[in-house]
Amino acid sequence: MTTTLPSLPADGAAAPAGLAPGGPGPWSSTDPVGAALHRLRVTGLFYSRTEAAAPWAVDMPALGACVSFHVVTAGECHVDVDGTSVHLRAGDLALVPHGRGHALRSAPGVPSLGRVDTLPQEYVTDQYSVLRHDGPGPRTLLVCGILAVDGPASRHLLALLPPVVHVPAGRSPWAAGTLRLMAAEVEHARPGGEAVTTRLADVLVVQAIRAWLDEQDDTTGWLAALRDPHVGRAVAAVHADPAAPWTVAALAREAAMSRSAFAERFTVVAGVPAMTYVTRWRMHVAEDRLRRGDTVARVAAATGYESEAAFSRAFSRETGRPPGAVRRGDG
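The structure corresponding to this sequence follows.
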């Protein structure tokens, strides 16, 4: 007997009944924060394994809308970002969001050997290298990477993150398990090891963001809205189906609240009125789809607008740019 599973929707598209957060059925999501993380798309751009003996230091360049990570599999080092220095020990992970330039050092004050991409290294593949530095001091093993984090939820998540997200060894059991697997791959080189390491790294970044989110206790804003037992259900429904004809009354039904009580609670928790949030989320979805090459007509339909003209006016008003310019990659 062959079992056919329902097809999963593209980002921002309506999910089939039973798959949408808040919808009926055995696969319904009960975790709006988890659903938002699921909508992240993590794309690895470059990875590197570093084997360095102290003293050493390297500069990491600014990289625009990217996320860098550094995992210490043996030894220790320091990550310096915008005047903040974080001491990493074996098993620790540091995530540097927002594409900030930063430095890695064996100890504070060690002068840099140069920008990491200009230093001699062994290129295993076009996206994976091994950097070695000999010195008289203790040895450190690092796995580093640069990733693009995409998807409508990414803008919200990355805006929440501090200059450095430090996940110490043992802080997150899930991340610790991934780190152990990564350390084993680095220590015992085997065929295909770089492929395994890079895939583990992609998972690790999402786990690091999740570990940081678990420690936050925001009283207002996007994260608080997702975590609220009533507002979160409405927000998850908007994320699952931005094209639906949402009204305050319809969202209140998702939240199992009266219209007036929901409207007040949403504004208090999220910091903006419910329909303002709906419009902004639609624009996040629209920008994401336009950047991926969708036509303006398709994006308009996917975000609940009856005409291209109505969508274009709303998009230009909210973002300050016409949709065609975003689709072409202008600016």
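The CA atoms of residues 24 and 133 lie 57 Å apart.
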